[in-house]
Fold each of these.
Amino acid sequence: MNSVSVRQTRPEDIPALIALQADVYPDIPPWSQRRLREQLEVFPQGQMVAETKDGLVGCASSLIVLWDDWAESHNWKEITSSGTFDNHNPQGKTLYGAEVFVDPRLQGKGVGHLLYEGRRSLCRALNLKRIIACGRLPGYNKYADEMSAESYAQKVVWGDLIDPVLSFQIKEGFSYFGVIENYIPEDTESRGNASLIVWLNPDYDPSKPTIIPEKTAP
């Protein structure tokens, strides 16, 4: 595999990102150019891509939220304002992971790790308290007739089952805190379920403010 680097998303990346997303999620409609432009306008620092010399191979998008507003229950459309990121709030202390996807041909090759590391670096740089995300459970569909999504996720955390997403997130240092139902209803592999996960920033300093840089052209 060619060397992979992570950088901030640029407007000219948008067509390639839409094509890549369609390859990763053939059963879920990809984002539109308008939505991706809106995300870049709202919080450019939170939008990242992974690339090789041959082109884009992954993406990670995020926004900042006041987690108290969403701690009990939410779905993807609510917390991301249907992908516009209008709920982005620089006064928050939580970096919310809205999306991560990797070229199917390169999954398991370290691209996801680099994107997650990019998020952790951003969380540290902005002096945010944590990263929270809701991850798909694509392996659950095989076990849905045998057990609840909560039981499935617990077995993944315990190491009795392997889930392509949650197992990876546990290895990346995230802690599991339960299942959210109807997070993405269109996600048939997960039966609409998602795992709530969190990573705490060990460098967070509550005596200092969150540092949001001035917007710059990507």
Amino acid sequence: MPKKDYYEVLGIQKNASKDELKKAFHKKAHQYHPDKNKGADAQFKEVNEAYQTLSDDQKRAAYDQFGHAGANMGGGGPGGFGGFGGGQGFGGFDFSQGQQGFDMGDLGDIFSDFFNGGRGQQQPARGRDISTEIQISFEEAVFGITKNILLTRQATCDTCSGNGAKKGATMKKCDTCNGKGRVHETRRSFLGTFSTEKICDACAGTGQIPSEYCGTCKGKGVYRKEEEIKIKVPAGIENGEMVRLRGVGEAIRGAQTGDLYVKIHVRAHKSFTRDGNTLLTNISVKLSDALLGMDYPLETLDGAITLKVPAGINHGELLRVREKGVPNERGRRGDLLVKISVITPTKLSKHAKELVEELKKEGI
């Protein structure tokens, strides 16, 4: 079955910026994350694959030109093998669509064999990405905060520093791969028989195994561990956004550690709401103060200020307090908008009625 268009997978236009791409990925990754959406593993993998391709300028350019075949080739240029750059080759197969019942993943491996001289350089597996959620206050979201959380994950073993060896043990050549870190495999396909290489499972691609295994991790180099993780939440983050901590996911011996995604939940504030980098609040003033003007003591997120309410202000008008809003990515503060609610009295004394009658005669 042909793969979906990567831009459609992420729900973006072909000319989307990197920021738009990143936001779309965060949204889709949260939507299909297996921890939140059981049975969505395939969609999550598809979203991750699309982002990994489109976030790399070279791969994206190759994908835009050649489709999935270009992405699988790691951004290779056109030409070769009977006009492969035109999307056709090897007797008219359309590799961008995976015709003749061949899976594009298999075709990607086969072309990798060709372009690496028949020795596909398969990379080590990457540690699994993991996710968690934290809740912060409205003020913490505006100004930023560093939070410490307890996280249980598969981490690099502290005892052996990840090499799987008991302290004082020597390292010896791996018998399985003869110290090469890779083992050969012979594969058959519709194009013929190809010799490929893969990471050696016995030594995790290092080419060496310890004479005695570490007692903590049993030679695996990783183990389950509860540890305190420091999360730096940037100023101006919005409710539902994700913070990515590289290398704080699941660890695998001899490979890159996965990432940790932290979803941020922001508690509502009793007085303020936000619209992007703008803060909004409401104040109520008496009718007389609206007519004559006043100095209003206003509590902002930065502390108390005196707000000048001009004479003759109308109900529903907005007053702007500059640079008392939310910081943007460059640290520049937005503004605070204050909506005025004029309190109209429901009961008037006799004297008050007489005064209003006088105002009425003056056309007020």
